[in-house]
Amino acid sequence: VIGVRRANRPQPLVIRITHWVNVPVLTVMAMSGLQILAAYPYFGPQGQPYTFVPGWLEGWSTPEWLRAGHWLAGARHLHFALAWLVVANALLYLFYLGLSGEWRRRLFWPPRDTRPAFHQFLYYLRVRKQAPPATFYNSLQRSAYTAALALGVIEVLSGLAIYKPVQLHRLAWVMGGYDGARLVHFLALLALAGFVITHVAMAVLHPKSLGEMVTGGQRHG
Amino acid sequence: MGRIVRPSRRDLWRFGAALGLAACDTRKPRQGVLGASERWNQSVQSLLFSRDLEARAGEATPEMFFPNYHVARDTPIAPPGWKLSIGGRVARPQQLSLDDLVRLPRVEYAIEHHCVEGWSATATWTGVRVSELARLAGAGDVDFVEFKSFDHDADRDRDYWSSWDGESAMHPQTMIAYAMNGHPLGPEHGAPARLYGAVKLGYKQVKYLTEVNFVDRETGGYWEELGYEWYAGT
Predict the structure, then answer these.
(1) Which residues make Cβ contacts (< 8 Å) with residue B102, sequence separation at least 6?
(2) Which of A69, A108, B18, B93 is the most buried (most CB within 10 A)?
(3) B-chain residue closest to A160, CA distance
(4) Rg of chain B over CA atoms, in angstroms?
């Protein structure tokens, strides 16, 4: 039997460490990814481009300050080195989440969270006057954090499919082939960037939660 | 008279940061920490490698859209009397003309090309397996294979070249190709003969071949010397 003690701080140490490790690591992953994309910022095979991809998504000359790794080879090395750190950090987080029981109050559980998440959304839109009752995280937060985790999984799987489209051909097939995986990898990055912008804005609006992610917060229990 | 200079904590941080940056110099990505990570990634890639897995390709790319490049300023043209030399650690070195190559057992595969830049393109290639040439020349157990070309970069004073691990070179789809989409290879795609395979990125597929050498250690290549990964498996 694994002895699991209930965490007595709002943000346990493992969650804080894995959270803050993500900040520099995912930033450099995104920046080196944009440097790699700059070598060929188009989607679909040569001569048969994806016509469903809107024009504004292609032909980007990403600004220099948003890139890392100086050039294609440097960015590739950076990307493929840090990818291991991303995965190791994520595995540590997921194992902790599972073993500690923290997943119960952090992850989106549809029967419990669907309605209140929708109500929370209406509350933010000022359509509803009262926020639905929430403990620790509200249901909309749970849905956002769970979606970010799912996007992370999609990034890792589509990244592997681009890296090894022949040896991992089944995975590449699921992603719509090599070119499909490139598009998935990029769209998931845009979605993650959207999450991060919202997340940072909410943290600034609620400094207490930001403080708790640094110190762990007030002990209880 | 000496004063003991004790580095402050800030000095130590600066030193550490400088060391870290030097070890992660992306201008020399095959050295330091990044070089170590490349060697780790290389061992993972060779673990993933499957000898018998034949890659399948989708729709052919209209040939006018199939990119071509060379490092020489003008399209390289084969010297008169061109022959492909098969050498290195072999029992029976060979000098093969294009006619000799065409008379050897041939294979044909549709292969999806994966360029390091990120694009893909598909064509059908016809040629002689590198494993067939190894047998012909008596190369025995193949550790590494070097491919050299007459594509000459005047600025760097280098001929284009690359080298592969034995397993990938002996893969059934790895061939010395002399035809593309059913017609003889054109000068823009590497005539008279080029290396083509399914298990490596595009810059490993040496065009305008002159030599195939079976060697006993990992060497390098044109882009590899500049900092691109050596293994570059797909």
Answers:
(1) B178
(2) A69
(3) B234
(4) 21
